[in-house]
Amino acid sequence: METLRLILLILHILGFSALIGGLLAQAGPGDKKVTGVMRDGVGTAFLAGLLLVGVLEGGDDPVNHGKVAVKLLIGLVLLVLVMANMRKEKIPNGLWAGLLGLAILEVCIAVLWSPVHSS
Ligand code: HEM
User: Where are the domains of the chain?
Assistant: First the structure.
C-alpha cells in the first residue's frame, strides 16, 4: 500500500506542477489562456488526490477529513474553471491570477495544515 501511496503522491505532485508551471509560464504582459498541459495537470492532480484519500482511508492512521474536504473543494473549483475555459482563445487576467492563487493556496494547505494522516 505504501508503494501505491508514493506512486500516487508522485503523480499528484507532477499534476499540480504542470498546472502551476503552465500558469507561471504565462506570467507578465500578453494574453493568457488555458493550455492542454494545465488541463492534464489539474486532472491528474485531482484524480491522484482522490485516490490518495482512498489509500489513506484504507490505512490504520486517522485521516484529517477537514483538510481533505477543503482540498477537495478548492481542487473541484480549479478543475471546473480550467475545464470550462479550455476552449477559449484567451482568459481574463483576473481568472489567470485566481487560478494561480487557488493552486498556491492548495500547496500551502497541503504543507502547512497538519499532516492529512496523523500517525
Ligand atoms: C491543484 C490542487 C492541489 C495541490 C496544489 C495539492 C498539493 C499537495 C501537496 C504539496 C501535497 C504534499 C504534502 C505533504 O506531503 O506534506 C499533497 C498531498 C496530498 N493531497 Fe493534494 N493538492 C491538490 C489537490 C488535492 C485534491 C483535490 C485532493 C483530494 C481530496 C488532495 C489530496 C491530497 C492527499 C490525500 C495528500 C497526502 C498524501 C500523503 O501524504 O499520503 N490534493 N497535495
Answer: 2-112
pLDDT at 98: 98
Cβ 116 under 6 angstroms from ligand 1 = yes
Which of 1, 5, 8, 9 is the pocket-test mutation for ligand 1 (most atoms within 8 Å of CB)?
9
Residues 6+ apart with CB under 8 A from 67: 109, 113, 114, 116
For the CA of 9, the closest atom of ligand 1 is: 38
Q: Select from 40, 10, 38, 11 the least CA-distant residue to 24.
A: 38
CB neighbour list of residue 47: distance below 8 Å, 6 or more residues apart: 15
Q: What are 35-76's pLDDT values in tens digits? A: 999 999 999 999 999 999 999 998 888 899 999 999 999 999
Could you please report the per-residue DSSP string of 8-23? HHHHHHHHHHHHHHHH
> Does the reported pTM lie above 0.85?
yes
